[in-house]
Design brief:
By secondary structure, the chain is an alpha+beta fold. Helix content is about 50%, strand content about 20%.
């Protein structure tokens, strides 16, 4: 069996992955607790403090729900500029054949560490911190079938 996909990663995809990683961790919990605390402090002290402190309280309220996501989106745009634009991946019994322009690299299945299924993509991990993103736009109706195929190939290596 062979699967062939052209990678089509957008800044929004990188942003969604970064936000999910943040809010599915202890950092996300701290962000939520901080934001709730700032909202309660603002409600309680807003009309009793000088204008400068009021502005700081308001900034504290929007730091994690507004400013952080915008900053992460900006970083995602910069990250996207470093990614190759014409990447094609072929998944077969031999492994994962990655084509970028005229360059080609074959990753044997033993080099693939994991496959992570998210609601909007599948990430094929080549090591603990690097992977290839295949979005739902690219996978289409093959997402579940392809994910099962990946899991079987990865499981057979261990």
């Amino acid at each position: 069996m062979e699967y062939r996909f052209k990678c089509d990663v957008r800044a929004k995809d990188l942003w969604e992955m970064a936000m999910a990683r943040t809010y599915n961790s202890m950092i996300g919990l701290i962000n939520i607790v901080f934001t709730i605390a700032m909202i309660l402090l603002t409600i309680h002290f807003f009309d009793r403090v000088p204008d400068v402190i009021s502005i700081l309280l308001l900034l504290g309220c929007i730091l994690f729900p507004v400013i952080q996501p915008l900053a992460i989106y900006g970083r995602s745009i910069r990250q996207l500029e470093d990614l190759p634009r014409d990447m094609e991946m072929v998944f077969s019994d031999r492994g994962v054949d990655v084509h970028v322009g005229e360059k080609r690299q074959l990753l044997k299945w033993k080099m693939i560490r994991n496959a992570i299924k998210r609601s909007n993509m599948i990430v094929v991990m080549s090591d603990d911190s690097h992977g290839y993103m295949l979005t739902n736009r690219v996978l289409g109706d093959l997402k579940e079938e392809f994910y099962s195929y990946l899991c079987q190939k990865i499981r057979n290596q261990f």
